[in-house]
């Protein structure tokens, strides 16, 4: 896999992973389905999925070539980008008027 397609794969995985906790009513995306899903479950899911996307990116980077060391700035920017990518799901889950729910 070349660098361009690996980048797009990681970005696509980040968009899907950042929105998945908001569109899924199950706990940890596969667990039981409670009557109301707590925001703390969504935060935990976001953290776990952010780590999974970072691991995917690190794996693809090391398969392409040598993995570069990263400082705290990289992780801070990655978490902020992940939260921004999850904004459509947040709007869907909390700000949109749901009919019949």
Structural description of this entry:
The protein has four helices and no strands. It has one domain. It is elongated, with a radius of gyration of 16 Å. By secondary structure, the protein is mainly α.
Count helical runs. Answer: 4
Structural class by secondary-structure content: mainly alpha
CA-CA gap between termini: 44 Å
Gyration radius, in Å: 16 Å
Poorly predicted ranges: none
Give the CA-based shape. Answer: elongated
Largest sheet descriptor? none
- Mean pLDDT rating: 90
Structurally, the number of domains stands at 1
* Percent strand: under 5%
Helix content: 55-70%
Total E-strand runs = 0
Order of helices and strands: HHHH
Transmembrane segments: 41-60, 72-95
InterPro entries: UCP019883
Organism: Roseateles agri
Protein name: DUF2818 family protein
Write the layout of secondary structure elements.
Blueprint: H1 3-23, H2 39-64, H3 72-85, H4 87-95
Essential attributes:
101 residues, mainly alpha, UCP019883
Short structural description:
The chain is an all-alpha fold and 101 residues long. It has helices at 3-23, 39-64, 72-85, 87-95.
């Amino acid at each position: 896999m070349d660098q361009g397609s690996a980048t797009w794969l990681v970005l696509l995985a980040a968009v899907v992973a950042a929105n998945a906790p908001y569109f899924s009513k199950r706990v940890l995306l596969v667990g039981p389905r409670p009557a109301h899903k707590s925001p703390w479950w969504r935060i935990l899911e976001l953290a776990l999925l952010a780590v999974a996307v970072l691991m995917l990116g690190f794996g693809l980077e090391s398969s392409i070539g040598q993995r570069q060391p990263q400082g705290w700035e990289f992780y801070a920017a990655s978490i902020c980008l992940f939260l921004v990518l999850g904004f459509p799901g947040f709007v869907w889950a909390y700000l949109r008027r749901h009919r019949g729910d």
